[in-house]
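In line with agreed milestones, the collection of sequences with tokenised folds has grown. One record among many is set out beneath this paragraph:
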Amino acid sequence: MSLDERRKLVDHELASKPAGTGGLSMVRQCAILGIHRSGLYYRPQPVDEQDLRIMRVMDLLHLEDPTKGTRRIAKDLLDHGFDVGRARVRSLMRRMRIRAVYCLPRTTVIDAAKYKHPYLLRDLKIERRNQVWAVDITYVPVRGGFMYMVAVIDVHTRYLLNWSLSNTMEAEWVAAMMSEAIAMHGKPEIINSDQGCQFTSEAYTALFRKGGVAEGVRISMDGKGRAIDNVFIERFWRTLKHEHLYLAPPVDGLALYTSCKTFVDRYNNRRKHSSLDYRTPAACYHLAA
């Protein structure tokens, strides 16, 4: 079961009953289900309306030109009526999990075996389904707040294999989504991601070790600041936001889920791609089975 499904099994009425009358404490229920109690009591704090408006504009600016840093974004925000400093822009970029794409001097050599995995897609000819999957997380706006979406796509056919929404970016959430994708579609040869902490976490990397659901699958990770290495899932985010969410922003999390589900169905089954000879991703993915 996914983390959300296990959380739904917690019975608050059962926890209020004495142990001698068939009650089961919250501590015991959480231990049985393998979840943290803190996640049950967490309530997201409302986001300042002004920050939400700024983040929506910043998201558009970043999608338009991912090389813009805090200085250029702050200047562009002035054209949209927002007089904010670089420190605030930097803080909001961290919250949105976006960063400028540019080359940096390599001043630190990271132990690849412990902190990251090499990028395996350079010069690789991708010519069949389930050869390479790409996974990523993005910020998605809703009216009065925002949430995060994680998705995994088959690179050869552009078929969106699985996705999930959350109000936090927990590593267990990403691992659960990936486990579901493998259960539905089988194992790929390579899974590519960025170097975000969710993809270097114990919960995620454990999937690829002996006994894990992705045992035998090779991990590939983008170079630092190289958003174009994961270009296919980045292109999906752009399509989702520009062609769907920004046209009719959902009012809450439930509406966002319904809206994304409708779009994913259309993207997979009815939206034809020029790169696929004007066939749908679903047609290409299942035809290659």
Summary: Strands lie at 132-142, 145-154, 160-166, 190-193, 218-221. Residues 198 and 273 are 30 Å apart (CA to CA). The longest strand covers residues 132-142.
